[in-house]
Amino acid sequence: MAIATSTASSPLGRPACEKDAKALQFIEEMTRNVDSVQEKVLAEILSRNDNAEYLQRFKLRGGTDRNTFKSKVPVVTYEEIQPDIQRIASGDRSLIFSSHPISEFLTSSGTSAGERKLMPTIEEELDRRQLLYSLLMPVMNLYVPGLDKGKGLYFLFIKAETKTPGGLLARPVLTSYYKSDQFKTRPYDPYNVYTSPNEAILCVDSFQSMYTQMLCGLLMREQVLRVGAVFASGLLRAIRFLQLNWQQLAKDIAYGTLNTRVSDPSIKECTSKILKPNPELAEFVIKECEGQNWEGIITRIWPNTKYLDVIVTGAMAQYIHTLDYYSGGLPKACTMYASSECYFGLNLNPMCRPSEVSYTIMPNMCYCEFIPHDPINPATISPDSPPRLVDLADVEMGREYELVITTYAGLCRYRVGDILQVTGFHNSAPQFKFIRRKNVLLSIDSDKTDEAELQKAVENATQILRPHDTSVVEYTSYADTKTIPGHYVIYWELLIKDPNNSPSHDVLNKCCLAMEESLNSVYRQCRVADNSIGPLEIRVVKKGTFEELMDYAISRGASINQYKAPRCVNFTPILELLDSRVISVHFSPTAPHWTPERRRLQL
């Protein structure tokens, strides 16, 4: 049978070119045979890692079938495999998880004991990730024609990396990808051309990187057909950067010079090839940016933009309204579903509304299982009560599940922590809506703060209040994304026993900083290195405010016997009630401490 060509239609739609046709055909083949592909993937993982120490503990004796695997290998969390991960990090090169050498650690945005989780990976995973990336534009081209006639303005960045005591790199998955040959030496693809040069993307200095990417985007403004970043928060940070730096950018464009703060030699060399005096463009930038009205600024500066390519699901949904303001309501495409542990799938309808985004899991990426999740009565997993896990092909429409994965790199029955809901099927492949990350209370960017971390931070901060005979009666929190960057807001009701010794404004500012110092390393990196989170704010409310909050909840049907103050709020009437009772406002006076080096784990 002849290979599909650019004129042959696919069940997904008419491909833009022969390369797209092959990609769409691959998607069809994988999604038609989900169960058999999953069975094959599990057998491959088990057979190739059969001599790894982790699998040998469970005495599979060469078995690669699902029943043997499920009956012998337990479902685990990160904390349960952390001792093995620490052995690898410390230099143990024996075959612990995988028969292939661990090439590096990918640092997760999730944390354990306040530090980023370390996810072991192997070299070939780069090819697997690249495969999923290669499917995104063929799908997008079905919905948005002509993307080969222009460029994408994507704000992409690397983050700080470090080495474990054993010498392995530890860095975020996107930093690993951008630094790989798969990205740096990618073949020319007219459908996937960026305005940002590799040199700017790979510059570790966030100001120089952002400045150069914004400058190049302005110079090529009429060629830009799509604007994006990984997360919605990242794109809003770029807009805020433009608000703060448009005068210097316009000056550089006018005179063909480069800001002296941009000192990276490779950036200076690559920009010199495109940066020429352009007074007309400079005047345009000044005209658009000097006023107070920034509504629709994206389409005003980049008038040919067809959509925004950003993640606006999960915690990022809080930025949709602001993105609409700056873009004039442009469509927002969420193209793929991935994590540090593994890349999972893609959105086959990328131009849908954010509330309708669903991801089709590609069954060749890893072996997937699902714990049925009841939001009212979440499953408790223990050796005495193992959960009933469901295979990818057996999930039910409308049900929520927690994702469990087994990867080629050696993670076995690992609980990722994502809660997904089945929204439909493409062929036999389920499509999932991302509901939330388990146990996450607050999130602004890539940070994830749970209730236990917030409680610990409040407890540490209240130590500062003790000399003033003051304590926190009750508290709640809110992720404020109306500011750019967003920041954590903590509402405190205080009990001040001696009004003559009440804590001063400066003391309460120090409480803000003490809370930040107590939060995990991902939060502190976002604050210090990435500038993607603003200073933490404490709003002190009047005495009796939380009683009013309880009265309000009871008036809406809450049980007085079971009521407890919510540790995070986002319901507008409750926020309005809290803000109407604020008597003082305080911010962290400085940034918290953060370095790329990890604390040594005590096992």
TrEMBL record:
Transmembrane segments: none annotated. Pfam families: GH3 (PF03321), GH3_C (PF23572), GH3_M (PF23571). One of its GO terms (molecular function) is acid-amino acid ligase activity. The keyword DNA repair does not apply. GO terms for cellular component: cytoplasm. Residues 359-437 form the GH3 middle domain. Keywords: Ligase. The keyword Ligase applies. Residues 453-571 form the GH3 C-terminal domain. PANTHER family: GH3 DOMAIN-CONTAINING PROTEIN, INDOLE-3-ACETIC ACID-AMIDO SYNTHETASE GH3.1-RELATED. Belongs to the IAA-amido conjugating enzyme family. This is Probable indole-3-acetic acid-amido synthetase GH3.1. It comes from Nicotiana sylvestris (Wood tobacco).
